[in-house]
Write a structure and sequence with these properties.
By secondary structure, the protein is α+β, with helices and mostly antiparallel strands. The protein has 3 helices and 2 strands.
């Protein structure tokens, strides 16, 4: 029987006045990933599930800016978050 895949999570941060691109703020697998997701939920931070993107971002070091090749897909994630945040504020 195939074992279930361990949960993975990557948290991004972006400060317009400080960063040139979003950065990896936290990442982890298993219990660490669960803690990242729980913290996001506790702070009403939208969660976007994208295993392929998580795998790519998981290869980056903490506090590393995302590479230019991922700008488009990360921009889509931020657009999703903006939309969710806007709907919640209504």
């Amino acid at each position: 029987m195939k074992e279930p895949k361990r949960i993975e999570a990557v948290a991004l941060s972006y400060q317009r006045d400080k960063d040139s691109a979003p950065r990896v703020a936290a990442k982890g697998k298993g219990v660490v990933a669960e803690n990242i997701l729980q913290t996001a939920k506790e702070h009403n931070i939208p969660i976007q599930e994208d295993p392929s993107l998580t795998e790519l971002l998981g290869k980056l070091d903490i506090n590393t800016a995302i590479p230019e090749e991922l700008y488009q897909v990360v921009a889509e994630v931020f657009a999703f978050i903006y939309k969710v945040d806007k709907e919640v504020k209504r």
